[in-house]
């Protein structure tokens, strides 16, 4: 088996248009508009592009005020990738599916739990409205890092959560905080 290409740097900064697939960006911004007052803070938005492999930075933290974005590694759920290929094969909103769900999320309260500092998510679409009852959150994970991606060619998998590198967690939680949009889907 050929050694996988090395992962790109886990945190990249650049203009939004150069970072995010245009179709996925449009759907995220449409969701922000559609959800209106349900999203009280509109300065930062998170976009997870699960059409990319897990070894690739694919969580985009968008600064809508200055038009920039930082891009980070993010894992998907093991139920979304049963063969552990690194590619998200399916989304699910079902209890105990251990899969990632697609759609718009409202970032909720920060807390310290099993995975350390974390942020709860409320699903706002029929495709992810079980997020809170499934305990789908943003958290840091040891199995999300440039080293893991380079060594294995894939990241580890979560139970459906948006698990990010420990080195990215602070920026993501600080900038998104409660009351903002995260949009997850395939382009």
Task: Tell me what the structure shows.
- The protein has a 10-stranded mixed β-sheet.
- The two termini are 28 Å apart.
- With 187 residues, the chain is of the alpha+beta class.
- Helix content is 19%, strand content 28%.
- Helix 3 links the parallel strand 8 and strand 9 (162-164).
- The chain has a single domain (12-86, 99-185), classed as L,D-transpeptidase catalytic domain-like (Beta Barrel), CATH 2.40.440.10.
Question: What does this entry show, briefly?
Answer:
This protein has 187 residues and is an alpha+beta fold. 19% of the residues lie in helices and 28% in strands. The relative contact order is 0.24.
* Fraction in beta strands: 25-35%
**Global geometry:** globular
Here the CATH topology equals L,D-transpeptidase catalytic domain-like
* Total DSSP helices: 4
Can you give the mean pLDDT?
93
Give the distance, in angstroms, between the N- and C-terminal Cα atoms.
Answer: 28 Å
Query: Any idea how many domains?
Result: 1
